[in-house]
Design goal:
The chain has 255 residues and is an alpha/beta fold. It has one domain: Rossmann fold, CATH 3.40.50.720. The protein has 8 helices and 7 strands. The protein is globular. It binds nicotinamide-adenine-dinucleotide.
Length: 255
């Protein structure tokens, strides 16, 4: 039985991945800011008969990130898989982009990936096995207007992914990034409203003309597609797949 940490695992994509991992017998540490995080963890544990522990560590705080990894090592025994998924978004033209949103997005979406990976590294190295999976974005590969911090942070995650893949190669540690297109989660629901304001459009026009315009398959990406890819990346079978940016974006980045 293997153990995984999923940051931002109590909502949206992270929670969907958590369900699949629990269904496949993984013990989990779920992290997130949702007030009912402990309840979500308890429910998953009961439903799937695995150990699920909860951490409300703030991904903006490196000491709390280290504490989360220590908690997982203490309560689960070891960390075999780290899924860096916590993320936020802010949509605004560059000249109005609030400095505090820039700092928060860089910290949560990018720097937390470094801090958490650094903290799990010694254990993975000692055991000769580790899987680090970064939930990046199509915006790790392509840009869109009004998202300067998010695009910068996700491109930064691409850089972290490649460096960790190189350093992990002789150690049995792989690192890959999943790059989703638009997925209908609370993060995107909030963006629909923000983008409508930034573009001066109705919300249905934002979905059709801004979001799905970029995805030749005119559908939101399903969370299960991301979860199943993460399960494969976490497996023994994926030991030679490393340093890859894997788009699940309905064809967006083919353009
Ligand atoms: P979501 O808002 O549903 O979930 C985000 C999670 O991150 C929540 O559990 C939240 O509590 C957690 N989080 C936010 N700030 C945190 C902090 N400071 N400390 C700890 N946890 C924090 O969003 P989602 O759409 O599921 O996004 C998950 C990841 O997928 C993000 O990295 C996002 O950038 C990425 N992504 C999402 C989409 C999409 O269309 N939804 C597309 C591409 C990439």
């Amino acid at each position: 039985m293997k153990n995984a940490i999923i940051t931002g695992g109590t909502s949206g994509i992270g929670l969907g991945i958590a369900r699949l991992f629990a269904a496949h017998g993984y013990n989990l540490l779920l992290n997130g800011l949702e007030k009912n995080g402990q309840q979500i963890a308890d429910d998953l544990a009961q439903e799937y008969g695995v150990d699920v522990t909860f951490s409300s560590a703030n991904m903006q705080q490196p000491d709390q990130i280290r504490g989360m990894v220590q908690q997982a090592e203490k309560e689960l025994g070891q960390v075999d898989v780290l899924i860096n998924n916590a993320g936020i978004q802010h949509v605004s033209p560059v000249e109005e982009f609030p400095e505090d949103r820039w700092d928060a997005i860089i910290a949560i979406n990018m720097s937390a990936t470094f801090h958490a990976s650094k903290a799990v590294w010694p254990g993975m190295k000692a055991r000769g096995f580790g899987r680090i999976i970064n939930i990046a974005s199509a915006h790790a590969l392509r840009a869109s207007e009004y998202k300067v911090a998010y695009v910068a942070a996700k491109h930064g995650v691409a850089g972290i992914t490649k460096v960790l893949a190189l350093e992990g190669a002789p150690l049995g540690i792989t690192c890959n990034a999943i790059c989703p297109g638009y997925v209908r989660t609370p993060l995107v629901e909030a963006q629909i409203a923000d983008q409508a304001m930034a573009h001066g459009m109705s919300e249905s026009d934002v979905i059709e003309k801004v979001m799905l315009k970029k995805q030749p398959i005119k559908q939101f990406v399903e969370i299960e597609a991301l979860g199943n890819l993460a399960l494969y990346l976490a497996s023994e079978a994926a030991g030679q797949l490393t340093g890859s940016m894997l788009p699940v974006d309905g064809g967006w980045s083919a353009q």
